[in-house]
C-alpha cells in the first residue's frame, strides 16, 4: 500500500517538474534511531515513563512555546489535549506509546509499543540534514503542537539549535471553502494536468506569498493559464528574430535593474509574488524591443532574453521547449473545449473551401465558432494554421 502511494506521489511531483529529494527516508526503517532518542531524553531528565508509555515534560524545556509565541497557559487554553491523569502536565506529549491490539509494535527497553507522532520527524530530519539545518517547512496548522514539540524534543536531546528558519504556508481554499475530503472538493494533481499545463499550477502558487491563504477558483486558473501562454509567446517571438546570437552588451541597465529587484524580492522571505512581477516586466520589455523591429535592438534582445528565461527557470517556469509546449497545449485545449483534432481539421477545410468559393459569410461563421472555443486561425500562402487563442494575439491571426 505504501509503495502504491509513493509511486503516485512521484508521478505528481514529476508532472509538476518538482525535483525529487536526495533522501526519502521511511519511518519504519528508523525505529532504532527513534528508540535511541527516547532513551537520551529519559537519561537527560526531559522525559518520564508511565508504565509502557513515555512522555516529554514540556516544563523541562524552558523555550517551550517559543516557536508558536505562546505561554503554557495560552497553549492550554487553545489546545485540544487528551485528559490523562498520569501526565505531569496536560501538554506533555507522547514520545512512545504502549502497544494496542491490532497496531504495529516494536520491542524496547521501556516496553512493547510504537513511536509518538512527532519523534519520527526529529529523527529523520536530524539524521539526513544534520543539526541545525536551514529550512523546515509545513502548514500553519503544524506550528502547534507538531513543530513546537518536534523542536522541543530535538533541542533537549542534542543541546543544539534544531532549525534556523521555519517556513509555514497558508491554506489552500477551493472557491473560498477549505479544501477537505468531507466537503468533496479535493483537487487532484492528476486531474489538473489533464486540463492545464503543470506550470499553470506552479504559477498559481508563486503568484501569492507562501504565508498567505490562497483561493483556488476557475477564474484564477484561467488567468494563470493566459499569463503562462504570454510568457511562452514572448520566447516564440524572440526565436523568430534572425541573428539573435549577436554579441550581447556587457550590461543593459533596465534589465539589470529588474534582475536586482528579483533577487531582492526572493531574499525578502521568498516573496515569489513580487519576484514574478519582475519576470513579467522583462517579458514586456522584450516585446517592446521586438515591436520596434530595429536591428540595433538585437544585442539588447539577446541580453534580456537570457535574463528573462534564467530567472523564470529559477522558479520552475518555461521548462519546456516551444514545440513541446505548443503541442501539449493544443491537445489539452481541444479536450477542454470538447473538440477532436479530426473535427477541427474538417472545420478548417470547410472554411478554406468556403473562401475559395467566395462564401465569406460561411467562412466567417466557422472562424467565429472556433474563436468562441479559444481557437485562432492564421492564414498564409502555405495554408491555415490553428493556434490556441490565449497563447497571445499573433500578427495575422484571426
Key descriptive features of the protein:
398 residues, alpha+beta, Rossmann fold, four-stranded antiparallel β-sheet, 14 helices, elongated, disordered C terminus
Structural features, described:
- This protein is α+β, with helices and mostly antiparallel strands and 398 residues long.
- The chain has 3 domains: 22-169, Rossmann fold; 174-315, Isoleucyl-tRNA Synthetase, Domain 1 (Orthogonal Bundle); 339-391, no CATH class.
- Helices cover 49% and strands 13% of the residues.
- The strands form 4 sheets. A 4-stranded antiparallel beta sheet has the order 1-2-3-4, covered by helices on one side.
- Strand 7 and strand 8 form a beta hairpin.
- The two termini are 52 Å apart.
Question: Could you provide a short overview of the structure?
Answer:
The protein is α+β, with helices and mostly antiparallel strands. Strands 1-2-3-4 form a 4-stranded antiparallel β-sheet, covered by helices on one side. Strands 8-7-9 form a 3-stranded mixed β-sheet. It has a two-stranded parallel ribbon with strand order 5-6. The protein has 3 domains: 22-169, Rossmann fold (3-Layer(aba) Sandwich), CATH 3.40.50; 174-315, Orthogonal Bundle (Isoleucyl-tRNA Synthetase, Domain 1); 339-391, no CATH class.
